[in-house]
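Predict the 3D structure for this chain.
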Amino acid sequence: MYLGRLLVWLVLLSSGALVAAGQVPKENNPGAGSQVAEAPAVYFGPFKINCDRPKDFEKFDYFILGYNEDDDARRDNRDALAPDVQGSVLVRGLLATTRGAQLDFETVKLVEPIPEAEVPGDTAPAKGAAAAAFRPVTLSFSTVETEGVRYAFRGQYMADPVEECGAYTHLRGVLSIYSGGKLVAEEKVSLYRFAFEELKAEDGAQ
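Done. Predicted structure below.
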């Protein structure tokens, strides 16, 4: 039904495999040292609610977070995934419902805090192990409105995935649904990342 769009996302995300596998020299890339640029597979891909969907969210199926290659001169995604001076990473995405509707993200922010030693004007040396510690990466988005309905999310990636209901939770946050511009439901959710192959298999079965 919408396999074409899914394949576009697959191409965008699979090109990050070289980065995740460490095949791109750090010294030649602005994304070196960035958690997102170093391990894009942790942050990008399709995400579903772990365990049972909360009441009022039965129509939510999954969302996909992806990145743009347009500004990536070397086509290795390090340019595209390197945070700016505010820690923001250039991303895009869409949310799919169980009825097959796809709502593009109207606004989206993936933010990786900048290490203290890298803040402009800060000349303090890195603080050893503390500087290399996991920095909480946050994600927030709001979809376009379709038939009067839009979704929004705000949450944080986990330093270590936690097994729940047979899958590993990678992201926790608050999912909201609006109808006619008014908030109608809001719930705390845990989300797990799953393989694109599963998504294509589901789509092919329709």
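The beta strands are 45-49, 60-67, 88-89, 91-97, 102-111, 138-143, 149-164, 167-179, 182-193.
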